[in-house]
Write a structure and sequence with these properties.
This protein is mainly alpha-helical. It has 21 helices and 7 strands. α6 (about 120-130) packs antiparallel against α7.
């Protein structure tokens, strides 16, 4: 059985738990003794001191979470008395964010909530929006909680009174055993239910041990240059430009569709990526081959924008309450999406009418047709271009850390997956089958021990590969 935690997250939490405990001990003039059984009252006094010194609520919440982790992981004691403090600070932090945006009405912050939905779903949407979660996250989390409620016959918040971590553990096991879901699906269900318990039910879910969904380690599908060119030859217009952005810049499809006019810097040949996975931003080079195609796209986009202005419907969705801070920004040219939909749409949260970007299913549909026309037999998706971008750069000798930055990976270990699909020119392993020469005793001369040792010491190849070469030579020498 495995816990639903990641090792790197555990390391970070353990580090900050120790840091906050030491600061906490210094404030109370105590030695940082792990045996010190501190109380909730002492934590409140420490939190008020930090508040009086200007520390925002979100940071004080992180501080309390660190002390909770220290209590649970180091002292091996329960931290139920600290959970109400953490939850209260979370609520204060949400209101502080709303206040900083100049908002007085909670409806302005969270948008319209459908009153016909179950009360638990309404409250979950409200919490997700107060915390600034993306709508895609809200949709996914709500879907997973609905599935849990359906499986357990739950209708309202009151029905959750007798629901605990055991029910969550059983549900996650059912997903793995009976549902045969992918690990990512099971992980998402866990995090959705964890959010429900912590922020809606205001209860500790406890440690969850469930049978994990398993899936063999997969290497990414990578296309050859010829295959990519063939697919490009079967795409037209904005869809060809999007495909070239995916391959030329290593973008995710969501990142390409969310590009705004202001994000493209033609003078410096750069593209800014905002609202990426994990809420991160980065800068990637703009390929010269895309300069003119993008200029043509923007010229056509400007015509549509001018028509919207004339009709009084020029508007675009803006992130992070920018629409409330800068009411005129939504109609400014620089904020418009580059790849705009030909139809106006209604924001599912605010119900406002905007011209949004192309629907996320539009490009994959065109890509599927292009792949079939190009007679490429690989399983090609939008993400395959990103895999090919990274792998081709690695094959050309680009540093792995540079590729990590270009892809926007937080951990280089994620980028290392591409090292498994690279054909290195400095390593040549010849199969025994290719060495067979029917009716001939001709053999390749085995490499000497000295040359093999030199290869290993120079880093040109690994010891295992040298052993393979040596054994191949000895076996063939006896043939």
């Amino acid at each position: 059985m495995a816990f639903f935690e990641r090792s790197n997250r555990q390391d970070r939490e353990a580090k900050w738990a120790t840091i906050w405990f030491k600061q906490f001990a210094v404030f109370h003039q105590r030695a940082a003794d792990p045996q010190w059984s501190f109380t909730a009252e002492e934590v409140i006094v420490f939190s008020k001191h930090k508040r009086d010194n200007g520390m925002p609520a979100w940071k004080r919440q992180s501080m309390v979470e660190g002390l909770i982790n220290y209590r649970q992981r180091v002292q091996r004691e329960a931290a139920d008395d600290l959970q109400p403090i953490r939850r209260k600070l979370g609520e204060i932090a949400a209101w502080e964010r709303a206040k900083s945006d100049g908002v007085e009405d909670i409806e302005e912050v969270v948008g319209t909530i459908n009153p016909r939905e179950p009360d638990v779903i309404q409250e979950m949407r409200r919490k997700l929006r107060l915390m600034g979660k993306q709508y895609s996250t809200e949709r996914a989390y709500v879907g997973k909680v609905r599935a849990f409620m359906s499986a357990r016959g739950l209708k309202t918040l009151d029905d959750f009174a007798n629901i605990d971590g055991g029910d969550v553990e059983s549900h996650l096991t059912d997903l793995a055993v009976d549902g045969n879901v992918a690990p990512s699906t099971q992980n998402q269900a866990f995090h959705a239910l964890l959010f429900l318990f912590e922020h809606v039910l205001n209860r500790d879910i406890g440690r969850i041990q469930a049978i994990r969904a398993s899936k063999g380690k997969q290497i990414p599908t990578v296309m050859s240059v010829n295959e990519i060119e063939s697919i490009f030859g079967n795409l037209r217009g904005v869809y060809l430009v999007i495909a070239k952005l995916l391959y030329g810049c290593g973008l995710r499809i969501s990142e390409a569709l969310r590009l705004r006019v202001k994000d493209i810097d033609f003078d410096n040949l750069l593209i800014e990526i905002h609202q990426s996975k994990g809420g991160k931003s980065r800068i990637v080079p703009l390929p010269k081959d895309l300069v003119e195609p993008l200029r043509r796209v923007l010229k056509s986009r400007r015509v549509l924008y001018d028509y919207d202005v004339a009709d009084g419907v020029a508007s675009v969705w803006l992130p992070h309450a920018l629409a409330r801070k800068y009411p005129s920004a939504a109609v400014e040219w620089r904020w418009q999406f580059v790849f705009a939909s030909h139809k106006l749409s209604r924001d599912p949260r605010t119900r406002a009418i905007h011209r949004h970007h192309l629907h996320r299913d539009t490009f994959p549909n065109r890509l599927r047709i292009a792949v079939e026309s190009a007679e490429v037999d690989k399983a090609v998706t939008s993400h395959t271009f990103r895999h090919s971008f990274a792998t081709h750069l690695l094959h050309q000798g680009t540093d792995i850390r540079t590729i990590q930055e270009l892809l926007g990976h937080s951990d280089v270990a994620t980028t290392m997956i591409y090292t498994h699909v690279v054909n290195r020119d400095d390593i040549t392993v010849v199969s025994p089958l290719d060495r067979l020469q029917t009716g001939s005793q001709a053999k390749d001369p085995p490499e000497s021990d000295a040359s093999n040792r030199a290869l290993v010491e120079s880093g040109a190849t690994s010891g295992v590969e040298v052993l393979w070469r040596w054994l191949s030579g000895r076996i063939l020498g006896r043939a």
